[in-house]
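BUG-369 | component: ligand-complex export | severity: low

The export step for EGV jobs runs without errors, but we want the raw record kept on the ticket for reference. Input record follows.
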Amino acid sequence: MNNLTEFECLALNSPLNLADGHARQALTASQARIIDDLPNLFAKAAARPPEEVGLDACRAYLGLLGQHSHPVGDGRVFACYSSSVAMEIFARALAQTGESVALIHPTFDNIPDILRGVGLNLVPLEEDVLHDGDLPRALLNSVSCVFVTTPNNPTGRVVSEERLRALAAQCADHDVILALDTSFRGFDPRAHFDHYRVLESSGCRWVVIEDTGKLWPTLELKIGWLVTAREPGLPVAKIYSDILLGSSPLVLALVQRFAEDAADGGLPDLHRFIAGNRALVRQALAGLPDVDFPDLDSRASVERVRLGARSSLEVWSTLREHNVYMLPCQKFHWADPHEGDHMLRVALARSAAPLGEAMRALRFVLSTR
Ligand code: EGV
């Protein structure tokens, strides 16, 4: 397998797919009503100016997640089909002026792959270094961008408001661009402080990649927004226009309706649902020798399981014989894959029945090794 997404593709047709981090649980009753209303949503989206549809969707989504100082309406919010498309556009823009990027380690491997794909050189930024205090000046002097995923995938660690303010100030001092990937922010209220207020007042050049794609089971109908500082010093608008004219007003209108439903009580329901699934995973494996959970504080829709001396690839292959799929963690550790040799990632945005069945299989496999 070349990357994590290839592992995820192998799992797509299995009913016991706990591999990818996309939302695959059943729609709630109120979400199902939105889907029932799709023909109407289509007609309404078609009848309005696309710009209005896009602005309303973005305001609803960012407002839901506490991002009240967003610059929506200021011509620097770019709607993309997915956050990976947004990231590719940012990476291409960055490659025109920069050479090196300090990238959070570990993180989902398509981020290093996209950045390397445009010729950028990567320097690992360990999570502990990021969270423990100021970044080393030598590091900041050697890169043109610091790229951070918060909450991080797969660990769930969140950059606090205090750390973000300090990080943005350091980036401003060193004229380094601060890039945030906030794809998992919806799951964790600790990531709902107003990031844009902090960034806008910091004086640093910044971009944020927002993603609706992890939150709701919308069959890959989603938006990745690329949001930039007023003067990012990068040709983002030009490169966006090379790739996209815009995103679908139908998808944008759908995102708006799901965001409104979430604001109406759906978001705390989702948080309870994920917390329940996390408890199910931890209980299903309780008491197994040398098995534990490194991310005790995580609220992301994924959970890592540490396997003791067992090999994650061997456990993965045995699970595959049961048609059960999870992710071995090597490739999250893009600078040092061995760090993931004894770890699996379990997706939690799944209905409880398949999750329970898969966890019984995992318990069986782990107790026979
Ligand atoms: C996760 C996969 C790619 C990504 C999966 C993910 N997308 N490769 N463009 O969405 O955590 O499983 O982030």
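Assignee comment: Attached the raw record above. Residues 5, 8, 20-21, 84, 108, 110, 153 surround EGV (CB under 6 Å).
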